[in-house]
């Protein structure tokens, strides 16, 4: 019995050693396969969103690796905006021109020669003078000012449509004053300004400096009623990483009543809403 047992013991030992010696490469291969499987599953999961873009697949996954706490929904939206890349790179011309849905930001631009259709001047009753808005936005703003006045509140436009050249000079002066890095946090480069759409308006109450507009009763009223006239706060507080600009309590954008109400209810920026519901 001992003579029979010895060969079996040797064979068993050899098998054990072979498993021990050759198991590591197989384990590495298994890990790689597991990684690919997980990534594939993530791709398939993200595809359920209507705003998923197959051409952005690799960018979604790369952004996910750098922002593991973000939801898949936020990853898709932010990559679609362009936030996985530096500002003013991979830019494209803004679509849906001459509609309330035109999106202009640090990735979507307007041509130098773009002039909005139906620009109309606001009288000094509603502005400081020399202010133009697209007719639809102008009419909505006039109604807003009139209704606010009924509550003894003063709202006036201090800036609205700005042409390419105007913005170019403005931005240039800001850069000379504060440098490019700081200027980019509060001023758009020419062609990338929301004001060139003719749908954006900066306001004050004719007393307090516009930088402190959020300390006024007029600001409180705007937060409660702006969507009823089709306006949204374009650069809200806490969303600087999405809009690319500092909080501006005085800058409002006309998008139409329906979308304005949906944006306010959702808590999204116009950039996020656009990618989820308009672009898709």
> What oligomeric state best describes the polypeptide chains here?
single chain
Taking Cα atoms only, what radius of gyration do you get, to the nearest Å? 28 Å
End-to-end separation in angstroms reads: 78 Å
- Give the overall form: elongated
How does the major sheet shape up? 4 strands, antiparallel
CATH topology of the largest domain: Muramoyl-pentapeptide Carboxypeptidase, domain 2
What's the SSE pattern?
HHHEEEEHEHHEHEHEHH
**β-strand amount:** 5-15%
* Strand line-up across the major sheet: 5-6-8-7
CATH class type of the largest domain: Alpha Beta
| Category from helices, strands and their pairing | alpha+beta
Q: From the coordinates shown, what is the CATH architecture of the largest domain?
A: 2-Layer Sandwich
Strand tally is 8
Overall pLDDT confidence: 91
Q: Count of helical segments? A: 10
Overall structural domain count: 2
- Which segments are poorly predicted (pLDDT under 50) over 5 or more consecutive residues? none
Helical content stands at: 40-55%
